[in-house]
Structure formats: C-alpha cells, structure tokens
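Can't paste images in this forum, so I'm doing it all in text. The chain is below; anyone willing to post the predicted structure tokens underneath?
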Amino acid sequence: MRISTNSIVQQGLEAMLRQQNELAKTQLQVSSGKRIQTPSDDPIGAVKMLDLQRQIGLSQQYQDNADVADSRLSTTDGTLKSAGDIMQRIRELAVQALNDTNSDSARQGIAEEINQLNESLVALANTTDANGEYLFSGYQSDVQPFDTATFAYNGDGGQRQLRVSDGYLVAINEPGDGLFVTQTVAGPNQAIFQTIQDFTTALNNGAVGTAPNDGDFLANMDYAMDASLEGRTRIGTRQNAIEMQRDINESSQFSMTATLSQIEDLDYAEAITELNKQSVGLQAAQQVYVKVQGLSLFNFL
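Text version of the structure:
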C-alpha cells in the first residue's frame, strides 16, 4: 500500500490542528477557572449546572423578597408604635380632662393639644413607604387610606403578599380598617380619629361627663390601642418567620453553590498538567510536520 507525500503531510497537519484546538480549550479553561465551557464538554454536567443556576437564582430572588418584606413590615411596625404612643398620650390627657376640678378654659387647652395629636395620628395612618405606597390601604396602595376631614376609610381589607420560599407567602401590610376603625362601647365600629374629635368637641362645649364622652372614651381608646398592639404582634410574628426562612434559604443556597462548584469548577493541578502535556505534544507535532513537509523521493536519488 502506497501512501503519498501529500497524504502524510495532510495527516500531520490535521494532528497539529487537533493539538492546537485541545491546547486552546485547556488554556480557556485555565483562564476562566471553569471546566465546562460549552454543553458539549459535559452534556450531563451542563444540564445539572443550568438547573442549579436556576435554583440558586430563584433562591436569591426569595432572599431579595424577604428583605423587601422585612423592610416593609419594619416600617409598618415603627408607624404603629408611634401611633400607639400618640394614643397613649391622648388617653392620659383625657383622664386629666375628665377630672371635675378642671375649668372650662383648662379643658379647652387640653382639647387643643388632643386635636393636634389627632392630626398627627391621621398623618401616621396615611403614611407612605419609600416607594410612595400607602402602608394601610390594603391592595389599593396608591389610594390614601383615610380622608383627613371625614375620616372615612378609602382602602380595602386586602393583604399584599411576597413569596419568600417555594411554599411560603408572607403578608407585608396591615389594612387600616382593622387598626384604626375599632369597636366602641356603644357598639358600632368607628374610626378612632372621629372618636377623638367627638371628645374634643365635647371638651370645648363643656359637655364631658356623659356617654360616650366620659369613661367610655377611655375604653374606646383602649380598644384602639389594643388593635394597634395586636397588629404589631402579627407583624413581629411574620418578621420572625421571615428571619427563619432567610436562614433556610441561605443554607440551601450554600449547598447548591457548593454542588455547582464541584460540577463546573476546574481542577487547576490536573488542568496545568494536561496543559503542559498538550503543549509538548503540539511542539512535537509541529516538528514532525516540518520534517514530513520537506520529504521527497528526489532527496534520495
């Protein structure tokens, strides 16, 4: 069987090109630190890698959602704390105003302070977050919850939710009608702002001492403060659950990231050894190619 010089040269060229491709591939792996550059490098590993990357990305989104939820709940809790402090101060002033030793002018002075505190309370009930969304309007985050003149509630009873894990949706708001529209001794629920305004009107008119502007007012304030405290308790429970879920998500992310690293990361020691072998092989192939290319039968005549 005869093998032509051209055939030998072609085979040498193909061998040299294969060596160059293998060397370039290994050099790319070393420079990137990644074993898998294309799916063809390891089809099964590439599929696992893509699935892990998807799961890690989803887990990170859950962590981001948890941060948003916790921030929103912290803002709401702080607002309710301030509202509770104001209501406590109003109750203290009411106790003072109901004392029979007060003159009409003294009661009017107390009424003025309570009115100012009530305005602050309404402002807190209409608080917005950093995105300009109202905290206490239910689903209608772009609607001001309470009318500042009539105290009517314009929101709804909806609770917006964020997903912080595959199986856990956390409510991130408390509707205002459950916090500031509360029961009264007389029976029907009423916005606490209206209850307070009615009391200051009675103080200014010298009409305190009869229901509901007597001891009933103090009870009505207690109902409102209890509603605020219960709201804060619910928020605290959710924040604790979010923190626990954060830890679970973080642990899961760590495990998946470690597995991903095992699949895609390069064994540098092995790769450098292979790189050296390929470099030597390429040099040998190049030398052989140069020698074969110069071969001719006429060299032996």
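Residues 64-259 form a domain with the f41 fragment of flagellin, N-terminal domain fold (CATH 1.20.1330.10). The helical segments are 5-32, 43-97, 104-125, 192-205, 215-264, 268-293.
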